[in-house]
Amino acid sequence: MKVSSFKHGSHPAEFKEYTEHKTLEPLPIPEEVFIPVIQHIGAPCKPVVKVGDEVKTGQLIAESTGFVSSNIHSSITGKVKKIGDFPHPNGTKSPMIQIVAEGDEEWVKVHDHTEPWGEMSVEQLKKIIADAGIVGMGGAAFPTNVKVSPPRDKKIETFIINGCECEPYLTADHRMMVEQAKEMIEGTQILMKILDVEKAFIGIESNKPDAIEIMQKSTEHLPGITIIPLKVKYPQGAEKMLIKAVNKREVPAGSLPMDVGCVVNNVGTAIAVYEAVVKKIPSINRIVTVTGDAVTEPKNVIARIGTPFSKLIEFCGGLKPDTKKILMGGPMMGVAQYSLDVPVVKATSGILCLTKKSVPYREEFTCIVCGRCVHACPMFLVPTRIARAVEAGKFEMADELGIMNCIECGSCAYECPSNIPLVQRIRIGKNKIREMKNKKS
Amino acid sequence: MDYTSVIYAVLSMGGIGLFFAIMLALADKKLKVEEDPRVAQIEELLPGANCGACGLPGCAACADAMVKGDVLATACPVCSEESQHSIAKLLGVEVEKGERNVAVVLCQGGHSNVVQRADYEGVATCLGISLVSGGDKACEYGCLGKGDCVEACQFDAIYIGEEGLPIVDREKCTGCGACATVCPRNIIEMHPVSHHVFVLCKNHDKGADARKVCKTACIGCSICVKNDASGGFKIDNFLATVDHEKYGSTMELPTDKCPTNAIVAVGYNDEK
Fold first, then answer.
1. What is the rounded radius of gyration, in angstroms, for the C-alpha atoms of chain A?
2. Which run of H or E residues covers position B208?
3. A260-274: per-residue pLDDT in tens?
4. How far apart are CA B247 and CA B228, in angstroms?
5. Which of the pair, B57 or A388, is modelled with greater confidence?
6. Rounded CA Rg of chain B
7. Least Cα separation, residue B123 to chain A (angstroms)
8. In chain A, which residues have pLDDT < 50?
9. What is the topology classification, in CATH, of domain B37-91?
10. Which of residues 191-220 of B touch A (CB under 8 A)?
11. C-alpha dist (Å) from residue A150 to A144, A192, A197
């Protein structure tokens, strides 16, 4: 099999065997959900329900307040108990709508068109996507309706579906491709129609042969969709790396994929689009890989948005006694959690639970200038110099070295033999530089 | 041996040397830059730490600005009263008696008071830890205890105590404010040295939530407001604040009724 890829990157151990052959299992409807009003990149939503209101599944509970923003819907049928601050997986306390389940499940449809999507106009389809509150399910949670509305002067030529799932441990996208191939292809076709492109590419890392086979079989009759097997390398699933691997285009520093005529969407996003347009269900479900050596029975779970992490872990048999660390997302870019009360949000691709054995304390040593981080960096930066500039407080120098182009993939820190927390240093630097620039303007 | 070539060389080189010496001497006279001698004298009086507390790039710049009259003779908040008087004398102005500011750490969430919600291993700076899921202490407003302020202080006036909290040496503190600028949680504030009564908490959460995370958090119960006749206390978004204008500079606590002991007389013991 011929595989494409990009330059640099790293090869972390995959650990996908925990869940890669586990079928998707729906989580029972939780008794209560905590739905954050900010789950996406952009402006926070404004709640449109009051305490005591009865809400149905799929009902709009917070509406977007700007162009780059995304609607929020109730994921269960019940009553609004409280609107207030609760712990959010990003580590802060953030406004959320607490809903307690009551009575039988009743659904609210996201649109009431009766014709098939082939007969709808592009504007109608875009409105459905915006109304359904669909955001990029890969992890960044960028509103999809914004992504598929490029400015007029930017012609989109290449549409790529991201099925790489290069983060170790995670298998949500993999299982979706295997089990929901038909839905995903239809979602892709809807997105192709919106973007007005003839061709779409589905990039899949070659460690998922079953997904590649199923995808190839289901797109045999569709000449517009090509499956591209990709080399297993981290971060193959990063937008810029994927574009480089699929059509050899390089996204310049500081610009967006649409500047080189590309749009990349995640597998989960395509399925969410299908569900919104065909099934009329807004974005209230999320496939979460609950995995790691600290979980008794790792699973791929279909969870409602707003379900507390504790419910998912309970569903997977609970935690082992020597659990040390819990992350939202994968081990490379995931966010450490301090509480299991935090809810599943639209960007929760996985809950990774690790034991003491998997996350040993690693003492930091001095940089030996070996250059392994340089060789690992997919953005062609020199992480060690940037990190040292930040440590010395020379933020202008770090800026000149391209610190703002860092995608925080973690390859450098993973490769570093001296265990230097390079990415953390770079994040500190980015934060400082942003602060300085804000002050200036 | 023929010495003529040596003599020629010596004469010509000497001539060129003499010519340039005269040129230099003329240039020195003609292009002389008059520098006010007071600049150097004032610079001598300034602390020389180049801390930037005056808002200018270093002590030399501050001295220059003082002589030019761009800033007041008291622009340096760091130097002693004595030097301020000397500077004023040099400049021929009167000094209004200003009060020294000192840093106050508005948090008591040390190891024995605050709930630790996670273990942290990583870059050991407050800024670093504040960017990782909101830090390892359960209180989202309090001190992170990694000592960015200690690092920033050029006068050795702040150190991390046994409780893992910064302690300000009110004698050594010059009031430059470097620690306050660098603190990612903004819990260090600059206050006149005569102010003693403070609410040592910045937690704006509701009482029950605040109490859950820290033993000494202000829970916004309003007992201080009710018990204080001077009206110097106010509750703002579940946090008590002291109005120093109204409250003045006494060292006596207005009330010992604060259930969490969040109201403290700072510097009381040192000066007693």
1. 21
2. helix B207-213
3. 999 999 999 999 999
4. 10
5. A388
6. 28
7. 7
8. none
9. 3-methyladenine DNA Glycosylase II; Chain A, domain 3 (1.10.15)
10. 205
11. 11, 13, 13
State the Cα–Cα distance between residues A250 and A257, nearest whole angstrom: 9
Q: Taking CA atoms, what residue in B is nearest to A89?
A: B133
pLDDT (tens digit per residue) in B107-147: 999 989 999 988 888 888 999 998 888 888 989 899 999 99
Give Cα A225 to chain centroid, integer Å. Answer: 23
Report the C-alpha gap between B169 and B185 in whole angstroms.
Answer: 20
* Residue the block writes with tokens 């404004």: A46
pTM of the model: 0.85
Q: How many CB atoms lie within 10 A of CB B162?
A: 9
CATH classification of A16-20+113-277, choosing from 3.40.50.11540, 3.90.226.10, 3.10.50.40, 3.30.365.10?
3.40.50.11540
Type and span of the H or E element at B102 = strand B101-105
Range of lowest pLDDT (A261-270, B102-111, B177-186, B220-229): B220-229
What would the CATH number be for the domain defined by B101-265? 3.30.70.20
Q: Å from B140 to nearest chain A CA?
A: 8
- The two three-digit tokens of residue A80, written as one number: 């609004």
Any idea where the domains of chain A sit in the sequence? 16-20+113-277, 372-440
Q: Exposed, middle or buried: residue B263 (CB in 10 Å: 0-12, 13-18, 19+)?
A: buried
Which of A337, A338, A421 minimises the CB distance to B123? A421
C-alpha distances in Å from residue B59, one per residue of A152, B37, B99, B161, B203: 56, 15, 21, 31, 38
B123 in reach of chain A (CB within 8 A)? yes
Amino acid letter for position A129: I
CA distance A392 to chain B (A): 12
On the question of pLDDT at B272 being above 60, the answer is no
CB A269, CB A202: distance < 8 Å: no
Element (H, E) at A424: helix A422-440
A356 touches chain B (CB under 8 A): no
Residue spans per domain, chain B: 1-32, 37-91, 101-265
- Ranges of beta strands (E only) in A169-298 are 200-205, 225-230, 262-266, 285-291
ipTM of the complex: 0.84
